[in-house]
Amino acid sequence: MNVKRYLPILDWAPRYGRDQATSDMVAAVIVTVMLIPQSLAYALLAGLPAQVGLYASILPLVIYAIFGTSRTLSVGPVAVASLMTAAALAPIAEAGTSAYIAGAVLLAVMSGIMLTLMGVFRLGFLANFLSHPVISGFITASGIVIGASQLKHIFGVEASGHNLIEIIHAIGVSIGETNGYTLAIGVGAWAFLMLARKHVKPLLKGLGIKPRLADILAKTAPILAVVVTTLLAWFFNLDEKGVRLVGAVPSGLPEFTMPPLDTGLWSQLAVSALLISVVGFVESVSVGQTLAAKRRQRIDPDQELIGLGTANLGSGFSGGMPVTGGFSRSVVNFEAGAETPASGAYAAVGIALATLFLTPAIAYLPQATLAATIIVAVTTLIDLPALGRTYRYSRTDFGAMLATIVLTLVHSVEAGIIAGVALSIGLFLFRTSRPHCAVVGRVPGTEHFRNVLRHDVELCPKVTFLRVDESLYFANARFLEETVLDLITREPELTDVVLVCPAVNLVDASALESLEAINERLHDAGVRLHLSEVKGPVMDRLKGTEFLAHLAGRVFLSTFEAWQALTNKPDRMMCSK
Amino acid sequence: MNVKRYLPILDWAPRYGRDQATSDMVAAVIVTVMLIPQSLAYALLAGLPAQVGLYASILPLVIYAIFGTSRTLSVGPVAVASLMTAAALAPIAEAGTSAYIAGAVLLAVMSGIMLTLMGVFRLGFLANFLSHPVISGFITASGIVIGASQLKHIFGVEASGHNLIEIIHAIGVSIGETNGYTLAIGVGAWAFLMLARKHVKPLLKGLGIKPRLADILAKTAPILAVVVTTLLAWFFNLDEKGVRLVGAVPSGLPEFTMPPLDTGLWSQLAVSALLISVVGFVESVSVGQTLAAKRRQRIDPDQELIGLGTANLGSGFSGGMPVTGGFSRSVVNFEAGAETPASGAYAAVGIALATLFLTPAIAYLPQATLAATIIVAVTTLIDLPALGRTYRYSRTDFGAMLATIVLTLVHSVEAGIIAGVALSIGLFLFRTSRPHCAVVGRVPGTEHFRNVLRHDVELCPKVTFLRVDESLYFANARFLEETVLDLITREPELTDVVLVCPAVNLVDASALESLEAINERLHDAGVRLHLSEVKGPVMDRLKGTEFLAHLAGRVFLSTFEAWQALTNKPDRMMCSK
Hints:
Chains A, B: It is a multi-pass membrane protein. In chain A, helix 3 (about 20-45) packs across helix 12 (about 220-235) and helix 7 runs antiparallel to helix 14 (about 300-315). Chain A has 26 helices and eight strands. With about 575 residues, chain A is mainly alpha-helical. At the A-B interface, helix 8, helix 13, helix 19, helix 20 and helix 21 of A face helix 8, helix 13, helix 19, helix 20 and helix 21 of B.
C-alpha cells in the first residue's frame, strides 16, 4: 500500500516553512471571519441549532488538512448540502428535536463512510453520472429554493416547506403576521450586503487599497452585519419585541457523538446520504481542480473522496452535519494566499476559539441577519443564462437540465437530481442508439470518401459504402441491422456492402452478433459484407471470432483499397456492371 | 396519418391469390398441430387452466394477421413469457384461482396497452436496452428454471417455486411421493420426443421423404405423444391411479373478458407487464427479422409493437394470457411455406375447432406429457456455449450475462433481467468514461500520426498531440480534464496541446464545459489548446459557442496542418526549441 497516496499531508508537511505558515495564517483569519456567519446560517438552513454548524467547522477542517489533496479547498457546511440535509431529515423528525440532530449526525457519518469507501475502491467515476447541465440546473434550482426558504426569517413568520410551491404557499398564508422589527433588520442586512458586494470594492480601491485585498475585505461584510445587528438586538432587547434570535448556544468544544444505530433509519437515509455525498464531491472537485490548475498543481479525485469522507466522519462523530468544499470560501482562501491545507487547520482553531468565547454574543444574533447572508450568498449559485446557453447548444442536454430544475422546484431536491441523472443517461443512450450513418462515395481522383448527400462523389450501383459514426454496442446494434437491411431491400442490384469503420471505437458482444446476423442475412440475399478502416483495438478483438471466420467479404485496411478491389475500374467515373 | 403504416394487411391482402392461400393453409395445418400441445403446456407452465392457452391462440393470431408486419411470425403463448407470467402472478394469488386467471388477463391487457403505445410513439428503441448477452443469458436461465419446474409433473409430486433453489428444494422434499405411472408416462414421452428430434428426420429421409418435409413432420412428434398418452390415460383410467390429467376443459369459443379494474393491482403488475412486453418484443423481432431477410423482406419494428400489442389486447379481452412470437413455430411456419400472415389466421381457425370439438379428449391428457413437451422444447433455449463465446470476446459483456443468469436462477426472472439491463448500461457508461487516449506522433516522412507507444514516430517536446478515441460526453468529460491536466504537470516545457478528434462523434454540453475549463486552465498555465480533425456535425455545433471564441489556439483541419504550424520545422526529426 502506498502510504503517501492515502496521506497527502506527507507531500507538503516535511517542507513546511515559516513563509508558508505566515501566508496560511493570514488566509485562515479571513476564512474564519467568513466561516463564522456561514456555519451558523447553514445550520439554520438545515433546521439545526447554530452550534452544529460551528462543530462541523472544526474537526472536519483538521482532518481534511491531513487527507485532502487540494491545497486551498475550504471544507465545512455549504448551502446546497444543508438544503439537502433538511430535505432528507424532514420525514424523519421535527426540525431542532434531538432525533433530528441525531439524523444530521447520521447523515454526516453515512456520507463519510460512502465517500471513504468510494475513494478506497476508486469509484470516483460514479460522480460522472451527474452531467454538467444536471448539476448546474440542480444548483440553480436549489439556490432558488434556499433563497425562498429564508424569506420567512426576513418577514419573521412561521412557514415551512421543502419546495418552492410549499414555501410560497406557507409564506402567503402567514405574511399577515409579519414582525416589523424583524423585517427592518432582515431587509437592512440584505441591502447592506448587496451594497457591500457591489460598491465596497470600488470604494476601498478608491481609498488606495490593492484590488485583491479590497476583494477579500468586501467578502467579510457578513461579519460586520452580524456584529452590528447583534449589538442592536442586545441593546434594544429586540427579542422582547418578537425578533427571533439565535438564542442560547452551549459554549465549549464539541464532544464525541455516536450516530444512532437504528438500521431502519440507516436504510431510510441511504439514498439521501449518497446524493449529498456525490453532489458535494462533484462541487468540491470542480472548485479544487479550478484552483489547483491556476498554480499547475493537481488534485487526485479518488483521494479527494477519502479527504471529504474522513472529514464527514469527523463532522458526524463530533456532533456536526454533512460538510463539503465551499466555493466562495475556497476562492477567498486561495486569493488570500493560502499555500497548504494547513490554512484550513488554522481556520479550525479560529472557529474553536469562537465556540469557546463568542457563544454568549451569538445568542443575540437575529436569525433575519443570517437569512440575509444566506440569500445574498445563494444568488451567486443561480445561473439562469446557463439555461439559454445549454438550449442553444443541445436540446437533449437542455431537456435533462430543465427536468432537474422543474422537479427540484416543484417536488424535491432528491426527485430533481434523480430525474436529471436518469434522463441524461437515457438521452445519451437514445442519441447513440441512432448514430449518424452516411452512404459515402469517392471524391473523384482522390483516395477520400465523403457523404453522398453533402458532396459530389463517384458511386457504384453494385457496391454501397456505409460509414457509421458511432461505436457499435447494444443500444444501436439493432439500428445497424435495420439500416443495412433497408439498404438491400431498396437496392435490388446490390452485390456488396462495405461498412466503413474509422469512427467505431468499440464493438460489443451485441453488436458482434448483429454483425454476424447482418452478414448472414446479406449472404441469404446474395450480398457480401465487407469492412474497412477497422481500428487496431477493435480488430484485435474481432480476430478469432466466428464473425470474421464467416464473413462473406473481406476486411480492407482502407476504403480506397475496398473501392479498387470491388469496383474493378478504380479510375473511371462508373464502375463495371 | 398513414393508414397503410398502421394496417400492413393492406400491403398483401389486395393481391392475395389462390396459390398463396394454398401455401398458407398447408403451413397453418402444421402449425396448428404444433400449437395445440404447446398452448396447453404453456398455460400449465403459467399456472393457468389449459383452455387459457387455447384462448390465447385464437383471436391474437387473427389480429396479428391484420396489424403485424412479419409474413411468417407465429404468435401465441411461448415458454419464457409463460414463466414470467407465473412469476408475476405468484405474489398476487394462488395458481389456478379466479383471481390468478384475472391477473393473467390483466397482464395481457397491460402488455397490449404498453406495446401498442410504444408502437404509436415509436419507442421500439427501448428494447435496445436489452443487450444480446443479457437476453441470451436470461433465456438460457429461464430455460433451466422452466425445465426444472416441470420435473414435478414428471415425478407426479407437489412442488412449487420460482427459482432453481426453491424448485430443487421442493422436489427434494417431495420426491418420496413419486407416482410410478406418472413417471412412466413422463419419462416415456420425454424419451420419445428426444428420439423423435434426433432420429425421426433421418428415418423419414431414409423412407424417401424430402428433407424439408421430414424436418416439419419431425416437429409434429409432440401431437403424437399427446394422442398416445391421452388414449392410454383414458383406456386404463390412469387418473384413478394418481396420474394427474389436464381435467375438464370447458368446450366452446372464448368469451369477452374484462380485466380487473383494481388500480392497486395495475400498479403492482406494471413492471412485470413491461418486462414481459419488452422481452417478448425483442424475441419476436429477432425471429421476424431473421425470417424476413431470407426472402429479402422487411419488418417494421415500430409496427411490430402495434401488431404484438393489439394481439395481446385481443388475448386479454378473450380470456387469454400474454402472447408473443414463438421461435420454433415461426420457423416451422416459414419452412412449411407460409407466404402471408393469413397463415396465422388459418391456424386460429384450427385452434378454434380444437376448442370446440377436442376438449372432451383433452381432459384425459396427462400433465406429465405436457411437461415432457415443455422440457424438450426449452432445451433448445439453453445456450451454454454462448457463455464461453461471450467470455472470450468481452469480459464486461460476460459480467452482465453472468449476473443475469445467476440472479434469474437463484432469485427471480425479474431480478435477473433488471440487473442485466442496469449492469450493461452501467458497464457501457463505465467503459466510455475511460476512453482510449493516445499521444500520437508523426510517422516520419508522411502526413500520418500514430500512437507513440505502438509506433516509431517523430515527437516534439513542446507540442503534444493527444488523440481521444471516444465521443466526449458527461461520463468522460472529467476524465478528459484529468488526462490533459496530468499531461501539463508531467511536461513542464509544454507550450501547445492538440486534441486530435477524428473519433469524436459527439461533444455534449458537459464535455463542452470541460473543454472550456481545459482551455482556461491550460491558458493559466501558459499552454495553448488546439483541436484537429473535428468532424463536420461536431464542428457545426461548436460554431457560435463561447468555447471557440475563447480558444487560445486554433482548429486545424488536419493533424499534419497542426504539426506544420506548431513545430516550425515540419521536415526535420526534431522541432525547434
